[in-house]
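Can't paste images in this forum, so I'm doing it all in text. The chain is below; anyone willing to post the predicted structure tokens underneath?
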Amino acid sequence: MLVHDKAHELARVLKTTPEFQTLKQLQTKLKDDTSAYKMFLDYRRKEIAYQAQLMSGQEPDPEQGQSLQKLSGIVNLNSVVREYIQAEARFGTIYNDIQRIIGDAIEEVSSIYTDEQEGGNN
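Text version of the structure:
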């Protein structure tokens, strides 16, 4: 069987998992609640901006971190948003596991980039 066929099969199976189904249902519920949806999007934008600063090596403003933490507390008071974020995390665990498994499978041929960075010539 072709690798692409297996990838499509994985996608189909992934869509049948309880984690995916729950996430899909909660996404609909979140989008139907306009105020909760706006709150979620605002929180997610700020969270991504903060994480991007950290990943780029920039030191975020401490007030920005405190503001994000406070907003996180407020967001978690909304059950619709909280349930969606929790479901997203559960599905994210599965997705990350799949990426790790695939990454492990191709490590042998992708290690050339690591060798170059480390100055090795294995």
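The CA atoms of residues 43 and 71 lie 7 Å apart. The radius of gyration is 19 Å.
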